[in-house]
Amino acid sequence: MKLFLIAALCAATVAHAQTTWKLATGYRAESFHGENIAQFGREVEAATQGQLKIELAPNGSLFKLNDIRQAVQDGKVQAGETIMTSLVTDMPIAGADSIPFVVGSYPAAQRLWQLQRPGMAREFARRGLKILYAVPWPPQGLYATRPIKTAADFRHMKMRTYNQTTVRIAEILGADPVDIAMGDVGRALGEGRLDTMITSAVTGVENKVWGPIKYYYEINAWFPKNIVFVNAKSFDLLAPDARAAVLKAASEAEGRGWLTSETVARSSTQELQRNGIKVERLSPELELEIKRMGERFSREWVRSVGHEANAIFVPYYFN
Ligand code: PCA
Q: Are 236 and 261 found together in one domain?
């Protein structure tokens, strides 16, 4: 009996010693988000003396970006990264960071995240998921193949979208939405499948959009976040010290990711410029008009989310 117990204990230790989490993402391993995940993985592995390894499955190779949350929830993969707006259909408060013109700076984005996080953690917990950390993309700017001078210029421009939120924004602007995953932007541009898009400077650089794209307007429209999370059962299976190590590394990854995002925002805008893209401001009249459209989107969002929206935005605006 004693021997059996010892054998069982050893087996349990060995089981802890060999855990590997696959982490599915829809984005590239070489992006700043991907590199941050890789560093997070290295830190977890070092802190747990190899008890836990995190293996990145980039580029939608395991699951498509918009399916990753469900796949982790169903236990098909242990961990994942997605963009929060991909969750809005059944988790409306996830869209709080993609309402145009609410947040205009990194400190404001951070404040919003602190207010959004408790509700998100509840939503995740309800689905058997645990949030590890979230990091914003640089501010969203407007790219175009031809100058945009008035709101009418959007009409019948093919605008790239990547989820429900961006489709609605395209519709409000009067553009024709075309769904294009981030990795396909370069090819789609080459094939003339898109004329305009709203995304960050770094995404423009990674997709080398110069050539077809001639203009980048720094409208700072919103700061969407990527969220990294794990199936709660996988997390609970870890030994307590490994769990603590994961949470510590996650909190460091979050801090590091926010700083990198800010640095990359600046360097990428310069790189767009170096490659011949005109980095400009919209005319004040058009900026005002676009902000009004943003307000319309915001009203629709608040109406669809209800009191949970107030729980975020009342303190955001009044504290
Ligand atoms: N890049 C991603 C999401 C937001 C961003 O800046 C994309 O364009 O798909």
A: yes
Q: What is the CATH number of the domain that holds 238?
A: 3.40.190.170
Q: What residue's CA is closest to ligand 1, atom 4?
A: 199
Phi, psi angles (nearest 5°) of residue 220: 45, 50
Q: CA nearest 174: which of 195, 153, 189, 192?
A: 153
The set of residues, in sequence order, having a beta carbon less than 8 Å from that of 319 and lying 6+ positions away, is none
CA 169 to ligand 1 centroid distance, Å = 14
Q: Please identify, by atom number, the ligand 1 atom nearest to the C-alpha of residue 200.
A: 6
* Type and span of the H or E element at 267: helix 240-274
pLDDT in tens, the chain (319 residues): 454 445 544 444 444 568 999 999 999 999 999 999 999 999 999 999 999 999 999 999 999 999 999 999 999 999 999 999 999 999 999 999 999 999 999 999 999 999 999 999 999 999 999 999 999 999 999 999 999 999 999 999 999 999 888 999 999 999 999 999 999 999 999 999 999 999 999 999 999 999 999 999 999 999 999 999 999 999 999 999 999 999 999 999 999 999 999 999 999 999 999 999 999 999 999 999 999 999 999 999 999 899 999 999 999 999 8
Q: Show the ligand 1 pocket: residues with CB < 6 angstroms.
A: 83, 137, 162, 182, 199-200, 203, 224
**Residue 167: which CATH number?**
3.40.190.10
Find the domain containing 18 and state its range. 2-137+225-270
Q: What global pTM score does this model have?
A: 0.93
If you measure from the C-alpha of residue 280 to the centroid of ligand 1, how many angstroms do you get, rounded to a whole number? 20
